[in-house]
Write a structure and sequence with these properties.
Strand order of the largest sheet: 9-13-14-3-16-15
InterPro entries: P-loop_NTPase, Rad50/SbcC_AAA
Structural class: alpha+beta
Number of helices: 25
Radius of gyration: 65 Å
Shape: flat
Coiled coil: 349-379, 404-434, 739-766
Family: Belongs to the SMC family. SbcC subfamily.
Domain Rad50/SbcC-type AAA: 5-181
Distance between the termini: 21 Å
Keywords: Coiled coil
Largest sheet: 6 strands, mixed
Amino acid sequence: MRLHRLELTAFGPYPKPETVDFDELGADGLFLLHGDTGAGKTTLLDAVAFALFGRVPGARGDVKKLRCEYADPEVPTSVSLELTVQGRRFRIVRSPEFDRPKKRGGGYTTQPAKCSLTWLEGWDGEGITRIDDVARAVEDMLGMSYEQFFQVVLLPQGEFARFLRSDTAEREVLLEKLFGTERFLDVEKWFRDKRVVAGRLLEERRQGASELMHRVAEAASEEPSDEPEWLDSVLERLSQAVREAEEQSVETAGVADGADALLAQARVQADQIRRVREARDMLARVEAADSASWFAERDAARRAMPVVPAFNEIAKLQQSYEFAVRDETRAAEALARLGYSGSSLREDAERCREEAGGLAELAAEAERQKADERRLSELKHASYQVERRLLALNAELEVLPERLAQCRAQLDAAAEASARLESLKTRADAAEALPGAGEALERTKTELRQAIDVHQKAKDVLQQVRHQRLENMAIELAAALQRGKPCAVCGSPSHPAPAQPMLGGVDAADEEEAARDEQAALDRRNSAERAAHAAELRIQACWEALGSEEPAVALSEYRAAVELARTRSQRQNEFVGLEAKTRDLGAEKEKVEQDLVRLRTEHTSLVAVVEERGARLEKARGEHEDVLTRRDHLLRLAKALVELADRRAAKDSALARVEEQQASVAALAAEAGFPDVEAALAAARRPAALQALDDRIAAWERARATAMATLEELAEVDPASEVDLNEVTAAASAARAAASEATTRLARARAALERVSELATRLRAEWKSLEPLEASYAELDALTDVINGRGQNSKKMTLRSYVLAARLEEVAVAASARLHRMSQGRYSFVHSDSAGARGTRGGLSLDVLDDYSGRARPAKTLSGGESFLASLSLALGLADVVANETGGALLDTLFVDEGFGTLDSDTLDIVMNTLDELRAGGRVVGLVSHVEELRQRIPTRLKVRKARTGSTLEVSLG
């Protein structure tokens, strides 16, 4: 990974745009960010970290306040970083979330965070604009997470000193983030989960066996025991109990059967005596009952049955007569309301119908009279509407000429705009293309500058290679010498001391390769020059097309002409429509005038007809409102007369039917043998009462017959004799209870034996199946304890700690080489995998071996300068190991933040030599410090002044 360019605006303490060119800073491999405390040195590193990962290292990342407090509110906060990773050059532009003033109204609104990634070289893919996608792309290319980046590339203030002095737990957290040992943590968890599942299964099986054993004890009514012979003894005792219960059951069953036979015989004798006594009592009650009156009442009720329905029919006929009387009364009242006072109903009705028939023709004329009157009203209203429409047409025809002239003018303007559209479009296209052409020109100029830099560097390399080859030409000529043949330079056949090859020498192949690189850079430079020239020509063409007109004016004129030209068809349609409307309104006015004349003529003629017919109808209506009303009155009067005559005839007919039915009922009562109708009705009974009387007689007859039959059947039984059932029943119950109890004991004993036998078989099988589970769980339990740092694990190291210890050992070896050199052979790191104090986990102990005393000592005992040397050595060693472990991009850039102030001059020389070795390997090393001696060693070339405080950040190149 190599950084090229950093641009930041309104970020941290920098309110205005600032630019750091890492290509210029890294040309010599070493540069210094120098300034007073608070000058913003670390902010530049924060900007690099924020551009890549959207966050900053250390405690500053917890604040999440990245915007400059002194920046203009309208200026957005942004960081742009251009870098190359794995041969791909790209630019990341990122803005944090910040508050900006609202465009409308007062107050502030939150501007959301944004991020974009643009490919510049080495990749043809599209850019990325989603924050999550950019984060994944950066992490994939770098091959490390942000925690690893902050520990490997950006070495922040005090972080490694804290790591050096931390305990095992804190050191383990950092190493886990750097080396990604989560998979080993998953292995530990997998074993623990596996043990929990196996333990739960084993416990369930154990619980099942225990439950079976308790069920055996419960079924056998004994206490459970873990003794092996307990189960066999339980089964033997239950078998003996079954045999004893079988013997007792057979004995008690015989005694119970004899007692039951005696009880049955006694019950038969007692039942016969009871039946004889009950039969005698029943016969006495039957003979004492008044059965003769029951038979007489039933006979009279049956003879009176025909009289009752005939008598009920009289009431129905009487009700019909009353209805007829009410109908006659209503008909008479209706006729009186019509003013009738005669007595010849049907003759007067015929006369009224004849008179109404004579008025039929005049009624038709009355209907026509009403229709003509309505027509007169309609003609009057229609004439009024036609007059209003005529006035509206005249008003519309007066304004149409002016609208036609206005529409004609708009149509001419649209036609003129259409004619000018093509020439205006040429200038508008040039105006639109001008910003893009300007951006293209700037881009091609940038590419040209980069191509010139690359070509110049390639040219310098070629010259350096040629210079080195010329200096080492003697070596190259010596390689071509052959024993006994003359030298190509001096001609001597003897070669006493030919030049020997040296490390790092160049030959013709190196020169040819450098020449090819220089030619490729030259071709790229020529291509960039042609592209820049083409961009300048495009801008020139745009300005020539615009002439003296401003781009904004050209765009505005073209857009206005387009909008006006679009209305041409609409204006044409409006003009044609107005002409057609003028013609249509003229024709409609002529038709409306004709309709008005026709309506007025029809109204005048209809008035004369209505007046002449009205005179005839007035004479014929008499005292009524009109002829139709008089005719309707006559028809209603005739109908009322006929209805009253019909109602009187119906009343007389109903009275005759009532009298006839009364005579028929009296005849039926006499035929049934009753003196009158009242006697017959008194003897009658309802169907339910008659049925009850029949049932009472039938029950009396059945009781008498039953009693007589029982006395005849049991004639030999003496009702005075007695049988004592209580004694016999008690003896039988006692014998049967004893037999039942013996049977119950036998059933229970057999059931207990069967149940216990079944459970015993299952219990033995469960005990046998538990044996392999117990062995498997014991093996898994011991292995899980070892993997998780317990049990037989003497070092108390988990699998993850073991892996981290191996990685830390590699870090200690890599860091010791640098620490030994920077401390002038005094210190080196010592890694220990022994367990910690009081049985705590070990494997991550890291001490310092002091060569002066020959003993290891804790890192906490080092002085400030010694701690810095140890921390820097540990950071550099960790960077090498992490880069190799992750397989990520080559780390060409490294930043070291602070700590130099604790070193004396000699130690600082050693540290600088070590950093020189880093840049000799191709790395660019950036130092962040306020130490004055470092600024003297690395001269200042660039200064950045911070707002408000006035402090200056100096960038020195060494």
